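FW: tagging you since you asked about this chain on Friday. Here's the raw sequence from the shared folder, copied in full. Didn't touch anything.
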Amino acid sequence: MGKTLPALDATLTRFIERQHLFFVATAPNGAEGHVNLSPKGYDTFRVLGPDRVAYLDLTGSGAETIAHLRQNGRITLLFCALEGKPQLVRLYGRGRVLMPGDDGFDELVAACPPQRGLRSAIVVDIERVSTSCGYSVPRFSYVEERPTLDEWCERRSPDELDDYREQNNSFSIDGLPALNGTTQH
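HL: got it, structure written out here
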């Protein structure tokens, strides 16, 4: 059955580093507004220590995570075993958004393969780690990364990517500020 820990141990670190997919959940303050749950892929996630993780945030159709983190910092990451024995790991914590030029941004980017769709980095200070069985999660076999985002970005100039982010990533669906026009190619 499940366990609760204050930080990652070596076994859980190895588990989450092997996953090809993870999920990020955030929500705005108050009873109104939309809870956001986003899948994340590519080789963008890094464990920085037992109580800190980070991932590169890539261009998407919205910027809910960024907006919610700027408002209240609350974030949960979920890793599920889709191959092998069942297991779920949730990381609860406080996140912050790093933009190009911010302290630590370049180091995080250098720790991962280049990502043309990069717009920010998310750093999470872990407050709680929980595991659970995942017995009902189906098994899937990893085939390969989808090249779709990379191909989409390659068809656009840096200015076109900036325009897209300004039009689609400046505010959350609830009107909270997200990206402020400062983007990364």
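FW: The chain has one domain: 4-135+144-168.
HL: agreed, and The domain at 4-135+144-168 is CATH 2.30.110.10 (Pnp Oxidase; Chain A).
FW: great, closing this out.
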